[in-house]
## 1
Amino acid sequence: MSFKYCATTRSAASIRHQFSTKENICISQFGTDFIRNINDYLSIPECDERIDPQFKENGYLFLASPTGKSILEQNVAMQQRCNANISLLDVAKLNERFPWLSTEGLTCGGFGESGEGWFDPALLMNSLRRKAKHQGVSVIQGEAIDIQREPSGNRVNSVIFKDNSGNKYTLDCGACINASGANSARSIASMIGSDIPVYAKKRCIFLFDCASHTVANCPLVVDPSGMYFRPEGKMFISGIAPPEDNDPTVEHGDVEPDYDLFEETIWPLLANRVPAFEAIKVVNAWAGHYDHNLFDYNVIVGPDPVVKNFYYANGFSGHGLQQAPAIGRALSELILYNRFVTIDLSPFSVDRIKDNKPIEELNVV
């Protein structure tokens, strides 16, 4: 089984509390606690090796122009009400704390003093897989091709899948979770007659070197343009969402980086925000797929309203890795107790799409 093209290993592997909705903030706060205490959750009793997720708690820095100032202030106020350790920095404070940053055109910034940063995505994924296997989970490699339901249509009985040789098998189940990712979430949902607006969008990440830089204590910086950058070892990574008119849905396997995006869009923005970045060299690049929920760019989680034991965990829209621990906990609570216990995620149900009640999340990067 290969994870070469999975979204996890091709992501920027970051976590933040700087969202505009309470539920998204709480989800990531749970994720931070999970990463900080990963050995309590994922260690194997007879294994002495401790898990080090390489969590760099350098924070996020969201920058605001005059037009974005009031929104950033409102977001920080919401985050602080949720006990997130976020500071609102004026231009003088930005200059003091980040002297390498050009504050031209800025009015303020929201900075995560703790709880935000980045980590090793492959290590988290493999630690989760190892723990699951230790607890008796069977990993089956195959392709789901159909879902069988009871005659009433209200419950899933089994999943039909085929292996690499084309042999078909039936897997009986008491609960079926659609956590299939960007390229197959809609097709799995369609097997129970559901249609969810989740589509694959390609996102590129560029690794660049700045040999003479003095960019010390750098957080993950989000420019008002939407361009972001952060340290990666002794180098940096950066990316940006392409404009909507040049952001088509993509097929599995389309992971070729768009170098023109860096040359024409990202590099000028980098040099404008950090003068030291005028002289940089791209040393690597890769692309992966976001499972974009085009309805409101928030996760769809919870049971189907008709097929009661079919659960959604789709449409993370780029936030999947940081939200995975809380969503996993939420799904287990639904299956065990038929309700959310740790965090009430009912606003993210699939029903909101049918009812045309989008959740407005202002901090989508």
Note: The CA atoms of residues 20 and 78 lie 7 Å apart.
## 2
Amino acid sequence: FLDVTPPVQQLTLGLVQENCEVSAVRFANDGLTTAVGTSTGQCLLYDLRLNVPLQMKDHNYGVPIVDIKFHSSKNVLSACNKMVKIWNMDSSKMVCSIEPQMEKVMDICVRDNGILFVAGEHAKINVFYIPGLGHAPSWCRFLDNLTEELELTKQSTVYSDYK
């Protein structure tokens, strides 16, 4: 089977802007799933057996995707220069998005727990605890207790009694 479609047209099936370049690639542990980040800020999830993306997430900043990671909780972490988005790889549903207080995000590091490290053009590495990704490591177990206490306390919203 010989595919004569130009590679740029294969990527631009109405999902990705024209004239974009691949800026980041990551393979999942299953060996079949690949995440591709583009220079225009989209992250596409591919099954290597198909030529169309399974999922697509746009960062809406128009800046290149710099890093992509797969998490054991079936989530994808994609980072552009301005933010980190965490989304479900099956449904493309957003888990959370983080905009660190730094000029430029360069790299993200995450293990099979809820701690996320974000490095960039800043003097310090930003550290975030995201309970949706997993429990806190044993050296900071107090974060799990703190999260449980926050969930148990009933918080009223600003407009709960607004008429």
Note: Residues 8-14 have pLDDT under 50 and may be disordered.
